[in-house]
């Protein structure tokens, strides 16, 4: 089902923040993906210093939402030799607050997944139908909801300005931004829980969702966007500085319109996306996960992708190297980088051989 907006709606949407021209033109780099890899590495190096000079946000809080099973062959691509067919990932929301130059406070939610509705994503719905209910309780754990976390942090839903996802796989936004027509499965009309929030998204992804390719269909709930008004979105073309130490940059590959949150904090620069599911996937030579270090050494691949969708694998590799070049090293263990997976590999006794060597679990920042 096609979403209710037209292509012209996407291109006419208002912009936000300050445009980042550093990453413009990747698709026009002469040569193949190898040339674009070198370009991405150089541009990330150039952007590091400029981004650090923008300052830092007031705070970054990390909120656990849900831990769920995920196929090992997706999360660790072809590198893992673990016998377990599934591993566990924990989806977390970041709450970022900053002040504009005029003193107005801004609140951005990164990955505020409505995981109850997310279960209806075709791939996960089919997977859930095959797993007996008693087993589901062993491998799926709901930690807390988006709204409960905000209440704990003292943030009213109407004070949220922006919702941001690295991409819109599994997302159903109807309860967050409301609909223009009654929704039978939700019991009628839907009043937005975040009445003043706009969804920041790359225009490439919105355009793709209007006419999904068969390889994309298992991962999107495009039909749920049909009755969402176009002005609920802020569609970007490229990167933006959103506030002091807060940026979103294009990282295409996992999906055509993939994007990465970049933060400058008291410990340096972080990047967060789902291009990889563990920090060690950016430095696999230090990984104790079965197969990863050997795979990287054998095939001279410096990163291990999260590859459930293969829209453009070489470009996703390049994007992950861009993220790797951009961030600082962990102050906890310098072998690993401050890459924070939006869904992070989590140890589970039910999935032997998939316990991470190192986990961030959270980003903590107060200015």
UniProtKB/TrEMBL annotation:
Q: Coiled-coil regions in this chain? A: none
Q: List the molecular function annotations (GO) for this entry.
A: hydrolase activity; metal ion binding
Q: What is this protein called?
A: MBL fold metallo-hydrolase
Q: What species is given as this protein's source? A: Corallococcus terminator
- List UniProt keywords, sorted A-Z: Hydrolase, Metal-binding, Zinc
Family per record: Belongs to the metallo-beta-lactamase superfamily.
Q: Which PANTHER family match?
A: METALLO-HYDROLASE RV2300C-RELATED, QUORUM-QUENCHING LACTONASE YTNP-RELATED-RELATED
Q: Which cofactor does it need?
A: Zn(2+)
């Amino acid at each position: 089902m096609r979403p209710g907006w037209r292509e012209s709606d996407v291109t006419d949407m208002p912009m936000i923040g300050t445009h980042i021209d550093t990453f413009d033109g990747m698709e026009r780099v002469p040569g193949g993906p190898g040339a674009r890899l070198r370009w991405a590495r150089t541009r990330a190096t150039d952007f590091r210093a400029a981004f650090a000079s923008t300052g830092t946000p007031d705070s970054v809080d990390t909120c656990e939402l849900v831990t769920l099973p995920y196929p090992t062959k997706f999360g660790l691509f072809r590198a893992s030799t673990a016998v377990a067919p599934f591993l566990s990932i924990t989806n977390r929301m970041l709450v970022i607050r900053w002040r504009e130059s005029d003193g107005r406070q801004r609140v951005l939610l990164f990955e505020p997944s409505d995981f109850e509705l997310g279960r209806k994503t075709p791939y996960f719905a089919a997977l859930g139908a095959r797993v007996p209910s008693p087993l589901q309780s062993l491998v799926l754990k709901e930690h807390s909801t988006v709204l409960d976390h905000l209440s704990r942090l003292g943030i009213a839903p109407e004070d949220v300005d922006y919702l941001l996802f690295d991409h819109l796989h599994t997302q159903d936004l109807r309860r967050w931004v409301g609909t223009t027509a009654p929704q039978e499965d939700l019991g009628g009309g839907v009043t937005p829980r975040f009445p003043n929030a706009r969804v920041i998204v790359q225009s490439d992804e919105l355009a793709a969702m209007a006419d999904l390719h068969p390889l994309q269909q298992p991962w999107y709930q495009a039909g749920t966007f049909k009755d969402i008004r176009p002005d609920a979105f802020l569609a970007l073309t490229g990167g933006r500085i959103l506030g002091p130490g807060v940026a979103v940059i294009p990282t295409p590959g996992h999906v055509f319109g993939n994007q990465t949150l970049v933060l400058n904090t008291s410990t340096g620069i972080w990047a967060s996306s789902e291009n990889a599911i563990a920090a060690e996937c950016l430095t696999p030579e230090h990984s104790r996960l079965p197969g990863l270090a050997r795979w990287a050494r054998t095939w001279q691949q410096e990163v291990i992708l999260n590859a459930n969708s293969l829209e453009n694998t070489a470009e996703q590799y390049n994007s992950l190297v861009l993220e790797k070049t951009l961030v600082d090293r962990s102050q906890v263990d310098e072998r690993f980088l401050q890459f924070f997976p939006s869904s992070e590999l989590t140890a589970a006794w039910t999935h032997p051989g998939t316990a991470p060597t190192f986990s961030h679990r959270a980003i903590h920042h107060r200015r």
